[in-house]
């Protein structure tokens, strides 16, 4: 029924096992394959959202199914964040758990099928999604250190149901699946039966349409990659841990190509804004040269500085605080929420501390005398959002060096800063 060849070299297989029809059939197929062919070790993951009393009995059912198939099961309890969309919040919590479990090169199998593909397309059409939102769910995509695979996408729900009955499988019927207050349930229970009475191939044709849209999006992604390659040139070497794009390169493109390039770039970093919020890009792009505009997005923000736009997320959304004594400068010093620093010096130094800017700092430079740090940072075009978190090395009350700026340090003393590792929030 399914082709598992693309994933045979993975170190391990995981399956998202809810206990419902789709994942039960997929688990049965994977376990059967693993019994009769060389295959990676197979483990099941059941996510308990705790959203309804009936769900408390589901882990026991899943444990029984997995025990009968000889498959290890891991039950993970998650907290679903409150918000406008319970479905989206539950999905976010579920996939965050999956990401934590899947190791390097490992595969997580999920049970989405052809009808899911069709329902997703229609659901997004009704919400007014753009081309990227209308593209087909891919058969495989990255997930954390591994990947997510959907081997049932070419198979109809009716085929899965027939297989389950023929094999004598038992599965959970989630009572919320019949609650048409949820948009997807309404489409599945009320809309699609009517469509299929008039057009029996509706699900198959919609799924094929989604695949065509996915191919068109792939071509636009190639255009975006070419545009971004030019815009990514010229990034400041001292801040290589931060992603940025040359504003002039983007502004020279047509408005449609600007949005296309940014959608591709942002899709790896944050949930994309809807059409109403793209005015934030125009405000950022068209602001006065001396302005410092910010475009706030779901998982971070874009800022403009020195002719570039910069993506900030994670620790970069909070200004670091504190003063840190450095007892042993031969060792790396961790800075809470701000990466770490290490020192290279011609001789051992004592009485060192690392601080952040408060204003009015003065640095003594060979051949230039005492200079105001603010002016020096202006000369080097250090972005304003970097300045507040730049580690400064002091000996007593004397400023010795500014991190990652060799020109702002004593000749025999340089401070090297490893920027926060979660700055990008890549998705």
Automatic annotation (TrEMBL):
Give its E.C. classification number.
Answer: 6.3.4.19
Q: Does the keyword Coiled coil apply?
A: no
Q: What class of enzyme is it?
A: ligase
- HAMAP family according to UniProt: tRNA_Ile_lys_synt (MF_01161)
Q: What positions belong to coiled-coil segments?
A: none
Q: Where is the Lysidine-tRNA(Ile) synthetase C-terminal domain?
A: 352-417
The UniProt entry's sequence similarity note says: Belongs to the tRNA(Ile)-lysidine synthase family.
Q: Which UniProt keywords apply?
A: ATP-binding, Cytoplasm, Ligase, Nucleotide-binding, tRNA processing
* Binding-site positions, ATP: 18-23
Q: Tell me, what does this protein do in biology?
A: Ligates lysine onto the cytidine present at position 34 of the AUA codon-specific tRNA(Ile) that contains the anticodon CAU, in an ATP-dependent manner. Cytidine is converted to lysidine, thus changing the amino acid specificity of the tRNA from methionine to isoleucine.
Q: Where in the cell is it found?
A: Cytoplasm
What's a Pfam family in this record?
TilS
What does it catalyze?
cytidine(34) in tRNA(Ile2) + L-lysine + ATP = lysidine(34) in tRNA(Ile2) + AMP + diphosphate + H(+)
Domain notes per entry: The N-terminal region contains the highly conserved SGGXDS motif, predicted to be a P-loop motif involved in ATP binding.
What top-level branch of life does the organism fall under?
Answer: Bacteria
**Mind telling me what this protein is named?**
tRNA(Ile)-lysidine synthase
Q: Which GO terms describe its molecular function?
A: tRNA(Ile)-lysidine synthase activity
Q: Which NCBIfam families match?
A: lysidine_TilS_C, lysidine_TilS_N
